[in-house]
Every structure is written in structure tokens, then in C-alpha cells.
Design goal:
Length: 370
């Protein structure tokens, strides 16, 4: 049996994205240690036999002194724990975890690129300044790992084109998968009026929330009774949206903000169409959960998102950053409500065939040879 260490950007990541994998590993008899910068999920992890260690790591921002401290701290933990495998997810855990794990030559390192993040999604002076540094760091991290998992082919091709990684060192996953039993198909007829649209995401610009709001404004003029909802946590991010801004939208009557939740299923059950106009993703877990529960999807024709939708079958793809196109796509479901059931059933079929979490986890475990 193997000693496996995970490093993630925040502890709820284990609950939202890696829970089925961790449970499976514990059930198989492996020793699992989970590292994260906060202890919110410590009790839940401990209850299933996972050892938790809190680490000094800031998922956002760039403070060289703190970041160097993070790497040294991670290296010390790895030396003390001597894991057989270190598995890192998201940007800073990937970059810092891989470098820290170099101190133990016998430790096998696996990295998962869950998306490109802030540096690769815009052209501000700060992003342009950081890009060469981040590319160099990725190149170093990838040199000292056994394999890198990507969640969509576009991210892999970009990294390959930039010369950051060799193709034969990579594996593409269908996201983190979705538990089809937990997110069961909703048998309720979904075409009843008034139609409810829902977007589930962190409240940041890069999720396409401004475009969603503008599309809502367009639709509300013609269809005032349509419900357009937003669910998700506020976030510390360079593109974060303030609570005051969301309150202003609510006062305007454009959307209904539902707050934050630990269980999205009741909200998905009471909705008809899932919308995510994101600028770029790894593979959005929120979309997979909506698909599993039988919702049609409206999302952008952009990396990570386009893989989840067969245009015209289980949803509609729209150009990124186009409020008008987004409103037009959403309007199709208002004018043709029969599409909701047909496309929703297709979403479930695609989720079963492509995104079953047990299939995804089987590929991860076979690649790690555990």
C-alpha cells in the first residue's frame, strides 16, 4: 500500500473535487495525507481516516518572501512524511509542491493542471509581466514530475506549444468527474413556466458574470417573469466582484442572488437551464453536476467549457464575452421549452458516458499504478 500526499489550494477542494478519489484510496488501504492552507475540511477528512496538515500557502497574490517560505515549509513536511506519491492540484500547489518534492528523490510526483488561472486569461500589464515567470516555473515543475494531468486538450496544446512540457508526459482527464449517484437525474418535468436559469460559480469576472447580468437585462425587458439566478461564494481574486455590486444588481431586479451553499443539488433541481459564460476553464465541475442532474447547458465556446456541450444536443455554445449571443441562446429555451427536457436527457447521457467519476478515478489510479 502507498503513502499518498495531496496538496490543494484550499481545504474545501477535497470535498468539492477530490472526495470520491480520496474515499476510494482510503478504502483500498492506502495512507492518505491531505495538505491545505485552511482547516475548514479537516474534520470531514479526519472522519474517513485522512491525516490533515495545514500549510502556509496563499492561493492568490504574489509575495516572493511568503512564497519562498511556502516552498521550504512544504519541503520540510515532505521530508518528514516521506510519501511515496505527491499529487498537486491547481496553480500554486503544482508550482510549489513539485519544487518542494524535489528534495526527496524517491517520491513520485503527479501534477494536475485544473485551469490556467488569472495570468493566462487577460492582457493587463500585470499579467504580461507575470507570464514569463509563471512559464519558467511551470517548466521547472514539469521537469521534476512523473506525469501531468490536464482537464482539456486546449490547455495541453498551449503548454506543449510554449515548450513547457513534452506530450508523452501528459494524460488528459475528463475533469474531476461527477458522482452520478449523488447527482442523480431529476425526474421532474423541466419545461414548466416560468423558466429558471441558474449560474453556479465563484463571484468573479472571469466566470462571465458581467455578461450574464447584461443578458439578464436584455431578457427581463421581454420576459419579466423569467427567473435568472446566481449562486456561489465571493472570492479573493484579481477579478473578484464585490458584494455591493451584487446587491445593486439585486435591487435593480436583474437577478436573484442565492448566496453560498455546501449542496447545490436542491438549487439545480428547481432550475431548468444551467448557464456558465466563463472565459476559460479546466473542466467546470459545476457544469458536470448540472449535466448529471439532467439540465441543458449554455456555455462558452472556449477551452474547458466547449468539451462539455455538443451544440444543439445537450445545450448551446456561445462566443466568449458576448452578452447578446448569451441572451439569444437563453431565449431559445424560453421560446422552445420542449428543448429543456430533450437536451437535459442528453446531458445526463453524456455525463454517464464521459464524466462518471469512477471512470476518471480509475484512469488516475492506473496511471499512478496504485
Amino acid at each position: 500500500m502507498a503513502k499518498i500526499m495531496f496538496i490543494v489550494p484550499y481545504s474545501k477542494y477535497y470535498l468539492n473535487f477530490s472526495w470520491d478519489l480520496i474515499e476510494s484510496l482510503v478504502h483500498d488501504g492506502h495512507s492518505v495525507t491531505a495538505l491545505a492552507p485552511d482547516s475548514v475540511a479537516e474534520g470531514t477528512l479526519s472522519a474517513v481516516g485522512v491525516r490533515f496538515i495545514q500549510i502556509p500557502l496563499k492561493n492568490t497574490g504574489l509575495n516572493p518572501f511568503y512564497d519562498i517560505l511556502s516552498i521550504f515549509h512544504l519541503a520540510r513536511i515532505i521530508r518528514n512524511e516521506l510519501p511515496d506519491i505527491v499529487s498537486c492540484y491547481s496553480i500554486k500547489p503544482v508550482l510549489y509542491g513539485a519544487l518542494a518534492a524535489r528534495t526527496i528523490r524517491t517520491t513520485r510526483v503527479f501534477l494536475t493542471v485544473t485551469g490556467l488561472g488569472y495570468v493566462f486569461t487577460g492582457f493587463t500589464w500585470k499579467q504580461r509581466l507575470l507570464t514569463p515567470l509563471v512559464n519558467t516555473w511551470y517548466r521547472l515543475a514539469f521537469q521534476h514530475c512523473e506525469r501531468v494531468f490536464f482537464e482539456n486538450p486546449d490547455d495541453l496544446h498551449l503548454f506543449n506549444r510554449l515548450g513547457l512540457i513534452q506530450q508523452d508526459k501528459t494524460t488528459i482527464l475528463n475533469g474531476s468527474g461527477v458522482n452520478l449517484d449523488k447527482f442523480a437525474m431529476n425526474p421532474k418535468v423541466r419545461s414548466k413556466a416560468p423558466i429558471t436559469f441558474i449560474l453556479v460559480a465563484r463571484i468573479i469576472k472571469d466566470k462571465g458574470i458581467y455578461e450574464y447580468i447584461e443578458a439578464a437585462r436584455i431578457l427581463k425587458i421581454k420576459y419579466p417573469h423569467v427567473s435568472i439566478q446566481l449562486l456561489g461564494p465571493f472570492d479573493h481574486n484579481p477579478t473578484s466582484i464585490s458584494k455591493a455590486q451584487v446587491k445593486e444588481w439585486m435591487n435593480e431586479g436583474v437577478i436573484r442572488y442565492l448566496g453560498e451553499t455546501t449542496d447545490v443539488r436542491p438549487y439545480l433541481r428547481s432550475s431548468n437551464v444551467f448557464v456558465l459564460p466563463s472565459y476559460r476553464e479546466g473542466t467546470p465541475k459545476s457544469v458536470l453536476e448540472a449535466m448529471a442532474m439532467g439540465l441543458p447547458i449554455v456555455t462558452t465556446d472556449t477551452p474547458g467549457c466547449r468539451e462539455t456541450v455538443i451544440h444543439g444536443r445537450n445545450g448551446l455554445l456561445v462566443p466568449v464575452k458576448s452578452s447578446k449571443a448569451l441572451a439569444d441562446a437563453m431565449e431559445q429555451f424560453i421560446l422552445n421549452p420542449y428543448m429543456i427536457e430533450i437536451m437535459g436527457a442528453c446531458s445526463r447521457e453524456i455525463a454517464e458516458y464521459k464524466y462518471d467519476v469512477f471512470k476518471v478515478n480509475a484512469l488516475i489510479k492506473s496511471t499512478m499504478q496504485i
